[in-house]
UniProtKB/TrEMBL annotation:
It comes from Methylobacterium gregans. It comes from the Bacteria. This is Methyltransferase type 11 domain-containing protein. Keywords: Methyltransferase, Transferase. GO terms for biological process: methylation. Belongs to the methyltransferase superfamily. Coiled coil: none annotated. SUPFAM superfamilies: S-adenosyl-L-methionine-dependent methyltransferases. Residues 43-131 form the Methyltransferase type domain. InterPro entries: Diverse_substrate_MTase, Methyltransf_11, SAM-dependent_MTases_sf.
């Protein structure tokens, strides 16, 4: 079976992705490190600009972070413990049996999973952990939640790539041919301004499709509707994304 073509929904939005995507909790890296058989090397596949890789560099001696998008890798700040590489998840280029942990955060739904799982098995040390991590639609306090849901489901909803359904299902719909480990109860939490939330919506892959189909961006109208219920633009509201996991020991 040949390598699947790379579905690149993110290179054009790489700077916005780096600026506006949420940050994983520090507890995530520690929870994964506790499961791993050692803390020598973590491989983070589909790393984007390195959100999770930077956290993994805390407990792990070395992190190799790969992404098929050169534009995403270009947005990754250098780190002395992270080797950022332009490479598909299905072909990391790492030696056999070298990694204590293999992760894919908000990325596995884009992979050729059969090839990725074969690669994970190849690079895994005995007892290494494979972790697929995802987060779905954020939760907001107050009336802003309804405005966000309308934009997500009704305005840009028809333009989400079909793979998005796996994210909304917490990755339970992805094939996962492994005995599963219990998942930690973790979430991404932040306090965001109006501009933070609009900037985040601007990174959505569905927005690219909506712009192409409609001939204009629906983001300004969303920003206007959100501002009407937000209050002062600088007001920070609590936002939360529960994390979903598929975890296995290889």
């Amino acid at each position: 079976m040949g390598e699947a073509p790379f579905k690149d929904h993110f290179s054009s939005a790489a700077p916005g992705y780096a600026a506006h995507r949420p940050t994983y909790p520090a507890a995530l890296a520690e929870a994964l490190a506790e499961l791993a058989p050692g803390r020598g090397l973590a491989l983070d596949c589909g790393c984007g600009n390195g959100q999770l890789a930077r956290l993994l560099a805390g407990p792990f001696g070395r992190v190799v972070a790969t992404d098929a998008s050169a534009a995403q890798i270009a947005e990754a700040p250098p780190h002395p413990k992270i080797d950022f590489r332009v490479a598909p998840a299905e072909a990391s280029g790492l030696p056999t049996a070298c990694a204590d942990l293999i992760t894919a955060a908000q990325a596995a739904h884009w992979f050729d999973l059969a090839l990725f799982y074969a690669e994970a098995r190849r690079v895994a040390r005995p007892g290494a952990v494979l972790a697929l991590i995802s987060y779905g639609v954020l939760h907001l306090d107050g009336a802003a939640e309804a405005v966000l849901r309308h934009f997500y489901t009704q305005v840009v909803g028809p333009y989400w790539p079909p793979e998005r359904a796996h994210v909304e299902a917490g990755y339970r719909t992805l094939p996962f041919p492994f005995a599963e480990l219990p998942a930690p109860d973790l979430a991404i939490e932040a306090a965001w301004s109006l501009d933070d939330l609009v900037g985040y919506a601007g990174t959505w892959s569905a927005l690219r499709g909506a712009e192409a189909a409609l001939g204009k961006s629906p983001l300004p109208d969303f920003a206007r509707d959100l501002a009407a219920v937000w209050g002062e633009p600088e007001t920070r509201r609590r936002v939360r994304w529960p994390l979903a996991f598929r975890l296995a020991r290889l």
